[in-house]
């Protein structure tokens, strides 16, 4: 899973690190090892630290060490090609990703779009027809969501700009992102979910 925003210093690193935590909380270290979560920015300058507000939001959720180790990087065609699914913060980011890697059109979604598509798909699918293994289930959902791509909200950015409240909303959205693959529940994104620190920038 590759998460993409503009500078890879606020939204996408927050999403990357928190998603790893949610996976470990739900699946344990061994189960979460099947997922490789990373992030990048369409205009990122390589090697920059995460923004202080995002770092504080991660620290409050038990991810301070991973936040301190994070360094930004710019998205490229290789990162996109290596990912099974690419979730972008807004339409402009999706457009940039597709300019870099046109062949990836079937696996690049807006974050909010992915949530909405999967929520709509699951009731129509017999649970028994989807793989039980979370990684296989996630890959199957990408295939099922593909025909409906580019129908979601324009952006996940908050009108109020960066704030603890907007981070809380993003955390809840990330938890919903993982629900369709059978890994976690939305309330795991709150401050009270603080498993042991795991991993840095991968």
From TrEMBL:
One Pfam family cited in the UniProt record for this chain: LMWPc
InterPro entries: Ptyr_pPase, Ptyr_pPase_sf
Name this protein carries in UniProt: Protein-tyrosine phosphatase
